[in-house]
Amino acid sequence: MPNVDASPVLKRFNTALVIDDHPLFCDALVMTLQAIAPFTNVATAPCLTDALSLLDNTPHPDLIVLDLNLPDVDGFDGLLRLRKATQAKILVVSSMADARTIGAALKAGAAGFVPKHSQRDIFLNALENLAANQSFVPEGHMRTQSEDDATQDAVSRLASLTAQQARILDLICEGKLNKQIAFELSIAETTVKAHVTAIMRKLGVHSRTQAVLIAKEASFEEHLRSSS
C-alpha cells in the first residue's frame, strides 16, 4: 500500500506512464511508484512511439517516468518530443547520470532526474519535489552550471522547434531533400521550405549542414564520444 499519509502532497499524482524498454525494470518502476504514492493507474510503454500513441488516445497522466535510452529515439530527441506532446511532469530515470546528461535533460524539459537503481527514498524525494512544482536532482549528482556546454546549448535550441519542425529536422538529418520531405509528410514543398527557414532561424544557423550538426550534438553518440 502507498505510504500516502507520510506525504500528503503526493495526492496530486493519480496516474502515471512509465516508458522503458526493459520489462523487468519497467515492472520495478511501476511497483516503486505504487509503493510511494497513491497512483490509481500506472500505464507502461516500451518505446516513444507507443507512448505518444497512448497520449493521443487516452487522458494524459499526471506523471511520466522516462528512460532516455529508448530503441526508437536518438539522444534527447525523445524527451523533447514528449515535452511538446504533454503538460505532464516528466521524471527522467537513466543509467547515464553524469552532470552533462542531467543538465541537458532539464534543459529539454524534464522536471527531475533520478539515476537508475536509486533507492526508493530517492524516488519519494523526487516525487515530493515534483508535486510541489520544484525540480529534482539527487545530492551528489548535481548538474553542471556551465552555460557554455555544447549539449545543453543544442538541446535548448532544439526545444524551441515545433513538433512539425522537429520532424522535418529529423528528415533533413536523414539526408532527405525538400521534395522528399513534402511527399513523406503530405505537405506542399513551399511549406517545407518555410519550415526549413524557420528551423534555421530558431537554431541560429545559416545552412542545413549546420542544423544537422546542432541535432547531432544532442545525440547520445556524440555525447558519449566527447565524454570518453
Helix content: 40-55%
Figure out the total of helices: 11
Model regions low in confidence, pLDDT < 50 over at least 5 residues: 221-228
Calculate Rg over CA atoms: 18 Å
Strand content is 5-15%
CATH superfamily of the largest domain: Response regulator
Write out the strand line-up for the largest beta sheet, numbering strands in chain order: 2-1-3-4-5
| Shape field | globular
Mean pLDDT: 85
Report the CATH C-level class of the largest domain.
Answer: Alpha Beta
Q: What is the fold named in CATH at topology level of the largest domain?
A: Rossmann fold
Q: Please write the string of helix (H) and strand (E) elements.
A: EHEHEHEHEHHHHHHH
CATH architectural grouping of the largest domain: 3-Layer(aba) Sandwich
Return the structural class: alpha/beta
Number of strands: 5
Q: Cα distance, first to last residue? A: 43 Å
Features:
228 residues, alpha/beta, Rossmann fold, Arc Repressor Mutant, subunit A, 5-stranded parallel β-sheet, 11 helices, globular, disordered C terminus
Task: Give a concise summary.
With 228 residues, the protein is α/β, with parallel strands linked by helices. 51% of the residues lie in helices and 11% in strands. It starts with 14 loop residues before the first strand and ends with a helix.
Written overview of the protein:
- The protein is α/β, with parallel strands linked by helices.
- The protein folds into 2 domains: 4-131, Rossmann fold, CATH 3.40.50.2300; 160-227, Orthogonal Bundle (Arc Repressor Mutant, subunit A).
- 51% of the residues lie in helices and 11% in strands.
- The chain contains 11 helices and 5 strands, in the order βαβαβαβαβααααααα.
- It has a 5-stranded parallel beta sheet with strand order 2-1-3-4-5, sandwiched between helices.
- α3 (77-85) links the parallel β3 and β4.
- It is globular and about 55 Å long.
- Residues 221-228 have low confidence and may be disordered.
